[in-house]
Amino acid sequence: MRKSPMRNISWPVVQAAVVWALVGLVGAGTVGVAEDTSPAAQAESNQAQAKGASSREAQASPAGKLLFFDGFEYEVKRDEVNPRPAFITQGKWSGVKSINSGRTGAGGYLYTVDRIPGYKGKFPGRNSRRVLAIEGRPGTLKTQTDFYLAYGDPQGPANQVPGDVWFQFWLYLNYYDDPKDKEDQLSGFTNGKFLYPSPDGRYPTYPLWLFVFRHSSYVWLQGEKEPREIEASSYQEILLHAESMGRDGPYANIKKGPDYNRWKMGQTSLEERIVANRWTLVKLHFDTSTTSARYEAWLRPLGGKTVKVAEWIDGVTPDFSWKIPPDKVGGHKVFCMPTTMGDHAEWGDRAKNNRDCWIYLDDFAMATSEDALPKYPE
Ligand SMILES: [Ca+2]
Ligand SMILES: [Ca+2]
User: Fold this and answer.
1) How far, in Å, from the CA of 264 to the mean position of ligand 1?
2) Domain locations in the chain?
3) What is the reported pTM?
4) Which ligand has the nearest atom to the CA of 71?
5) Which backbone phi and psi does 2 adopt, to 5 degrees?
6) Rounded to the nearest whole angstrom, what is the distance from the C-alpha of residue 361 to the centroid of ligand 1?
7) Terminus-to-terminus CA distance in the chain, angstroms?
8) What is the mean pLDDT for each group of 10 consecutive residues in the chain (378 residues)?
9) How many whole angstroms from 81 Cα to the centroid of ligand 2?
10) CATH for the 5-368 domain, from 1.10.8.420, 3.30.565.10, 2.60.120.200, 1.10.580.10
């Protein structure tokens, strides 16, 4: 049972249901009646916001639609409890759970910053003066986190996160040893979900895909005969990993893998990885809009080149299939980011290895096609 991260989610997200009731729904109801807070209006508002920064690209891509964009150019404080922070009022996220939003059991902070300890360069986002800080404390607290920003309305329509969906964001894992010991951010990373969608808005759930960060991963490198498990070279490096298990058995099927690994889609190239103290652009494509599914991922370091690091395509990737049952085809209502990091205290010794981490994120975007995502000159 514990081998599957899909099942590990169970307890933390029990609380998510409560959050939906308290923060997501009640929160939306407290907004003035003049303000349209429907997801469609929010997406439009955010799209307009993004267009302001990238009007040329938006005009040049009539086919695709930018559904959501947040550059995190607003202030959310770390050391002040606010149950309805600017993530909701300005960022248009539908919910938030963190220590500093006053939620118990969160195990982490979510806030925005205008500087990163130890980092001297510019932020990589459009006209960026602020970025999101994701501070996970599974090491200090010796248990799994359950903190997140939520997108989408569980009472709203299906496919608010479309079946064919693109995500893109800049990510920075900080490892900074302050000589004065005032701003140490000695991140380590063992494992954690990062994008956790739900088909019906409820949690825990079996999404059609789950995007995970891992220290140990199941990769199948191009040119190699078989997939294999590998460990990242340090805890300051993160491997991308996607899963598709399904309620009635694994949908993704890596045919040369053992039963317990058949749905774990690791990187297919290690030419690029997420490493500490460097901004990396992460671009993701999930398509479960037909019975034949796909997952692709690209990484691009700031100042570097784009490298495709994962390709799992039903009908194309050899010795692999990913068939979505016809009645499950489509997308999801909501997603949460990041949710769980580290292992739960109830799982015994494993939680002893948990580590704290400081992840920074800029220009989060979700779109219906690649050409609608913000572009950054190489
Ligand atoms: Ca920004
Ligand atoms: Ca230090």
Assistant:
1) 32
2) 5-368
3) 0.85
4) 1
5) -75, -10
6) 8
7) 44
8) 40 39 31 36 46 44 86 98 98 98 97 98 98 98 97 97 98 98 97 97 95 97 95 97 88 95 97 98 98 98 98 97 96 98 92 96 98 94
9) 27
10) 2.60.120.200
